[in-house]
Design brief:
The protein is 35% helix and 32% strand. The protein has 95 residues and is of the alpha+beta class. The chain has a 4-stranded antiparallel sheet with strand order 2-3-1-4. Helix 1 runs antiparallel to helix 3. It is globular. The protein starts with a strand and ends with a strand.
Amino acid sequence: MAAYLIVDVSIHNPVGYEDYKKLTPGSLKNYQGKFIVRGGKTECLEGYWNPERIVVLEFPTSELAKAWWASEEYAPAKTLRQRNAHTKMILVEGF
């Protein structure tokens, strides 16, 4: 079953975050991950949610998504993200 990481990002250091954006795509390859949404325009239709940046990644399974998140390939990028932004991230299975 496909799995999706949905990420709500608030960037507090845009220059440092640019380095994160450059490193992340290459780390996805071995885990068959791909970007579905990467920072496009958002519009709230119900409730109150005004995210700065939304990212959605797709993986073939939740196991691959979690393996990528914990991987050595992603570790340098993850450190940059955590240093330069505040993130809320959830994993959801889909079809």
